[in-house]
Specification:
The chain has 307 residues and is an alpha/beta fold. The protein has 12 helices and 8 strands. Helix 2 (13-25) runs antiparallel to helix 3 (34-46), helix 6 (114-126) runs parallel beside helix 7 (142-155) and helix 10 (233-245) packs parallel to helix 11 (263-272).
Length: 307
């Protein structure tokens, strides 16, 4: 097991606690009656699966229970455990960095850990020997550019930034030009996340995406949405909003070491049909890594006698 997966296992305490109740519900011998299904759905909602996803899971399990003549709750929970891993395992979950430069657009609301995630991504790619260009296109928050400057110095990446209040699309243009000219392998573009000015924000994102497509002749290699895992269903509503404006290729879920409950990852995949590509489990640069559904599911159900 890699150091990152070890760290993931150590930090998912809150999420594991939420699933402990589901494990208990699946104790051997409990009848598969209406009370079981009601309790099961309630526990899914409490674990941040959300009402629509919880209802869909229960409907599906009920159908299989009828087909296979299940009689006890442990059969349903065992099937649920297997289904969670299968459901979270989506094709195309790897980051696309084959073309050079691979332009990645990173979006999300302020406070989600977006700019920090860009810095950690820079380290992730620098550790692979890639040349990285950071682009501070969040020009409405001076701290974002300063934060990226620190990450650029720390990781040995290059940085393009504009003046405070500059046109974000123009900064993105400058970053792509500079990255291409300097032989960057990866260009990471930060963006504003001010949902309180939703219409302006979304127009800015459209302009930035248009600039990328015009300059490289293709959509971004990745459009990653950074979500704070502790915000539960609010994260899902944010995901819908961003997905409407700039089609997402994947999500990065941060702060899984805090109070995240785990079910939100399933809800995101169910709602948007995009993979969770990376997860963050702490503040250190090395606390960002690829999402591995099998390891995640094993950790959530750790201690269970259900296989």
């Amino acid at each position: 097991m890699t150091p990152f997966l070890n760290r993931l296992k150590q930090t998912l305490t809150r999420a594991r606690d939420g699933f402990a109740a589901i494990r208990v519900l699946g104790r051997e011998g409990r009848p598969l009656d209406s009370a079981f299904w009601e309790d099961f759905e309630d526990l899914l909602i409490a674990a941040d699966f959300g009402v629509p996803t919880a209802e869909k899971i229960v409907r599906g399990l009920k159908a299989v229970a009828t087909q296979e003549a299940w009689s006890t709750g442990d059969q349903a929970v065992a099937r649920f455990r297997r289904d969670v891993e299968r459901f979270l395992t989506i094709d195309d979950a790897a980051l696309h960095v084959t073309a050079a430069p691979a332009v990645m657009l990173v979006v999300g609301v302020n406070g989600s850990g977006k700019t920090t995630t860009l810095g950690k991504l820079a380290k992730y790619f620098r550790d692979q020997g890639k040349r990285v260009m950071l682009v501070a296109a969040d020009t409405f928050r001076a701290a974002a550019a300063e934060q990226l400057a620190i990450w650029a110095e720390r990781t040995g990446s290059e940085l393009v930034r504009g003046n405070e209040g500059a046109d974000p699309a123009a900064v993105a243009f400058d970053g792509i030009k500079a990255g291409t000219a300097r032989g960057a392998d990866v260009i990471l573009i930060d963006t504003a996340g001010r949902l309180q000015t939703k219409s302006n924000l979304m127009e800015e994102l459209k302009k930035i995406r248009h600039v990328i497509e015009r300059e490289i002749g293709a959509p971004p290699a990745e459009t990653l949405l950074v979500l704070d895992g502790t915000t539960g269903q609010n994260a899902l509503s944010q995901a819908r909003l961003f997905h409407e404006v700039t089609p997402l290729t994947g999500a990065v879920v941060t702060k899984l070491d805090s109070t995240a409950k785990g079910g939100i990852l399933v809800a995101i995949v169910e709602e948007l049909e995009i993979p969770i590509k990376l997860v963050g489990v702490g503040e250190r640069p090395e606390d960002l890594g690829p999402f591995v559904p099998g390891a995640f599911t094993e950790t959530l159900f750790e201690g269970s006698s259900i296989s």
